[in-house]
Amino acid sequence: RACLRPEDVIARLGGDEFAVMVEDGHDAEAAAITVARRIMEAFVLPVGVGAESVSVYLSVGIATNHGGATAAEELIRDADVAMYKAKTSGKGHFEVFHPSMGEAVLERHGLKEELRLAIERQQLTLYFQPIVDLGTGALVAEEALVRWEHPSRGLVGPSEFVPLAEETGLILSLGQYVLEEACQQARRWQARSDASLTDGPEVAVHVNLSAVELRDPDLVDRVRATLSDAAVNAQSLVFEITETVLLEDSERAKAAISELRALGVRFALDDFGTGYSSLSYLHTLPFDMLKIAKSFVDGLGRRGPEASFVRMIIELARTLGVAVVAEGIETQEQTDALITLECDYGQGFHLGRPEPVKPELQLSSAA
Ligand code: C2E
Ligand code: MG
Ligand code: MG
After folding, report:
1. What's the pLDDT tens digit per position in 159-197?
2. Is the whole model's pTM more than 0.85, yes or no?
3. Ligand 3 centroid vs 53 CA: distance in angstroms?
4. Which ligand is located closest to the Cα atom of residue 271?
5. φ and ψ at 221, to 5 degrees?
6. 300 pLDDT exceeds 60?
7. Helix-, strand-, coil-residue percentages of the chain, each rounded to 5
8. Kindly report the CA angle at 289 between 141 and 223, in degrees rounded to 5?
9. Atom 34 (ligand 1) nearest CA
10. Among 79, 94, 150, 290, fewest CB within 10 Å belongs to which?
11. Are strands 17-21 and 47-49 parallel, antiparallel or unpaired?
């Protein structure tokens, strides 16, 4: 209020969002910028809260009726879009609305809504990619990879919507859907393997788990319930997580991993070598498996340092007492090189592409 003229209007829109309405017959934008600067300056010094002093950062979005808005709601929406833009440029900025900003935000907003509906309407589907024992050629597991069967865009891959799902919290329902489907599928495969093989190995399912899911306080209970609903052993489930999950150093995530491992669920470190793994924490990590990232596998069979890297990772895994899976195998040469290096398991287009489940899938088809 101290920054405003008596005739200006200030309102709290909710939470930590406030709106200021400034009228100016000459140059509304310049007037709004002046007010925005004044307000931001007022917050340069920390605010005293009890014995503490706390810094408050504001982001300001400015919209005028020259931006095309004709109703108050539109003006507020435009200001909100500009504020969102200001926020993404860092703390303590202001931005003036421009119609081009709206498009990206509205498209994102639209996609978010669509994703929400897609989960409700079960437009998500799982593809499975085999993981094979490189020594015997036997199928040991299938990794579940989510796809979005979009009514107009066709099949959309996870890299396009998993980050959005994480940002919006939709990842929790998405992840639960993937987990349920994967466990149901595991039970079907196992029923078949029990019937067809006397002492056959059980096919495990691998499910990718995002950092957001690991922080969900209900995760352990949900997993326990899902396994028991599907009548699947915890030993048949492997969660794949990336190194970045561990970098966040979340106590809750670590506790969730140990509780799940106590149930018998296994964990694989996905895309190993592409994150920021520090050797100093590797030996304290509760893992059962390392997945060597495709980028290391790519160079195998060619001249270059990759073979030494892969050999080193395999040796590291041995030292840690964990199994190794090589990802993204695309050629027979790479397969041969990995067999020579005594890599335990392999996965990649050469051994089997991710595919929707075929009812006639044979256990031996990937060998
Ligand atoms: P990821 O878990 O590392 O999965 C491997 C990705 O590499 C998959 O891409 C797979 O289709 C692809 N791939 C496998 N073999 C080959 C190969 O030989 N050559 C090449 N060029 N690519 C290969 P996709 O299915 O697009 O998945 C991308 C990422 O999205 C996954 O990486 C995973 O991190 C994430 N993701 C997939 N499904 C889920 C899910 O249900 N939940 C979560 N949180 N993340 C998921
Ligand atoms: Mg994975
Ligand atoms: Mg991977």
Report:
1. 989 988 987 789 999 999 999 999 999 999 888 765 554
2. no
3. 45
4. 3
5. -65, -40
6. yes
7. 45, 20, 35
8. 65
9. 208
10. 150
11. unpaired
Distance 92 CA to ligand 1 centre (A): 38
Per-residue pLDDT at 42 exceeds 70: yes
Provide the percentage of residues in the chain whose pLDDT is more than 70.
90
- The DSSP annotation for 214-276 comes to HT-TTHHHHHHHHHHHHT--GGGEEEEEEHHHHHTT-HHHHHHHHHHHHHT-EEEEEEETSS-
pLDDT at 358 over 80: no
Output the six-digit token pair for 129: 């990619």
Distances (CA, A) of 59 to 10, 64, 141: 16, 17, 49
Query: Is pLDDT above 60 for 198?
Result: no
Amino acid in the structure at residue 117: L
- For residue 247 the two structure tokens come to 């970098």
pLDDT of residue 367: 35
Of the candidates 361, 365, 329, the residue with the CA atom closest to the CA atom of residue 345:
329
Which burial class, exposed, middle or buried, applies to 234 when counting CB atoms under 10 A from its CB (0-12, 13-18, 19+)? middle
State which ligand 1 atom lies nearest to the alpha carbon of 347: 15
Residue 366 CA to residue 358 CA, distance in Å, equals 13
The first and second tokens of residue 8, run together, are: 């200006």
Q: Is 296 left (phi over 0), alpha (psi -120 to 50) or beta?
A: alpha
Distance of CA 161 from the midpoint of ligand 2 (Å): 15
From residue 22, give the alpha-carbon distance in Å to each of 7, 26, 35, 155: 8, 12, 8, 48
Q: What are phi and psi of 284, to 5 degrees?
A: -95, -5
